[in-house]
Amino acid sequence: MTVYYASRTGNVEAMIGKLGITATKIESGDEVAESDFVLITYTDGYGDIPAEVDAFLANNSSHLKGVIASGDTAYGEAFCGAGKAIAEKYGCKDLHHFENDGTDEDVEAILNLVK
């Protein structure tokens, strides 16, 4: 499965490295997905979808099969809120949540989801 990701602080990018997979980074939101994909994204603000991710999905959501979100448990109920919001807004599966750059268990779970 193709993977697209967004990373602002480096946590999601670190997870991509741990996964050892090829993935395309969403920089501007203008990127074009030509096949089905899973999205791995950070959570912005208090559970918000990052602006570049929302722009990307506005044009590519027909290929979106699921979302995996990173967050910080210090935000309480907003933890990984971007994943929940994307699943609701774009009608895809909210597949997995991980804190910061994730654990070994998160790596294993995500690898099982994207392969």
Structural commentary:
The chain is α/β, with parallel strands linked by helices and 115 residues long. It has one domain: Flavodoxin domain (Rossmann fold). Helices cover 35% and strands 23% of the residues. It is built from 4 helices and 5 strands; from the N terminus they run βαββαβαβα. The chain has helices spanning 11-19, 51-60, 81-90, 104-114, and strands at 2-5, 24-25, 37-41, 64-71, 93-99. A 5-stranded parallel sheet has the order 2-1-3-4-5. Helix 3 links the parallel strand 4 and strand 5. The relative contact order is 0.21.
Number of helices: 4
Largest β sheet strand count, sense and barrel closure: 5 strands, parallel
H-E string: EHEEHEHEH
Strand content: 15-25%
CATH first level: Alpha Beta
Could you list the spans in which at least 5 consecutive residues all have pLDDT below 50? none
Morphology call: globular
User: What's the overall average pLDDT, rounded?
Assistant: 97
CATH topology: the name is Rossmann fold
Features:
about 120 residues; globular; alpha/beta; Rossmann fold
Characterize this entry briefly:
The protein is of the alpha/beta class.
Write the layout of secondary structure elements.
Layout: E1 2-5, H1 11-19, E2 24-25, E3 37-41, H2 51-60, E4 64-71, H3 81-90, E5 93-99, H4 104-114
Parallel strand pairs: 1-2, 1-3, 3-4, 4-5
